[in-house]
Design a protein that fits this description.
Helix content is about 25%, strand content about 25%. The protein is built from four helices and eight strands, in the order βαβββαβββααβ. The longest helix is centred in the middle third of the chain and has 14 residues. It starts with 10 loop residues before the first strand and ends with a strand.
């Protein structure tokens, strides 16, 4: 069921941003900032809040460089599938190559939640099926929407954050 909490035809979307490889002579954080600007430039998407930036160890552990992670809260009039297409376009423009699962990447944009929509299709699962297991999603999500409730489990941020304590992550001082 889709519950729209904003103006008619608009939904709140939570988008996780991550990168751990440089692209076009810029570091991962610069690429993440560029992705935020690309979201601001996307027709039908209005960025409302951007989290702090965090550095986290790769999940699962792999010997890759650490990731830079954040979350954007936006309002959109796009459907979840059209928004996902826009995210994939931004990734591609920033050098994202899809190879093996959990590979290092120049940019990763994940649609974490779309209002309270619960859906499972071959292309898109909402809410994101592993977001609740990852501190690198939950800590920045807490920055932009501390009252968020997981649409499937109903758990609040405090319970979700408690479950990921001990994962290697720290806030990047700006």
């Amino acid at each position: 069921m889709l519950v729209r909490s904003n103006e008619a035809g608009r939904a709140t979307a939570l988008i996780a941003i991550g990168a751990n490889l440089p692209h076009a002579e810029q570091d991962a954080r610069a690429t993440c900032l560029e992705a935020v600007q690309a979201l601001r430039d996307t027709p039908g998407v209005w960025v409302e809040a951007v989290s702090h930036w965090y550095e986290s160890a790769p999940v699962p552990p792999s010997g890759q460089p650490p990731y830079v992670n954040g979350v954007v809260r936006c309002v959109t009039e796009l459907s979840p599938d059209v928004l996902l297409d826009s995210l994939h376009t931004i990734e591609t423009r920033n050098g994202r190559e899809r190879s093996v699962p959990n590979a290092a990447r120049t940019l990763d944009l994940d649609l974490i939640a779309f209002d309270n929509l619960c859906q499972q299709s071959e292309r898109l699962v909402l809410p994101h099926p592993r977001a609740h297991e990852r501190a690198f999603v939950l800590l920045p999500l807490n920055d932009v929407m501390p009252d968020w409730l997981h649409p499937r489990s109903g758990e609040n941020m405090q319970a979700l954050l408690k479950a990921v304590q001990g994962q290697e992550i720290h806030r990047i001082r700006e």
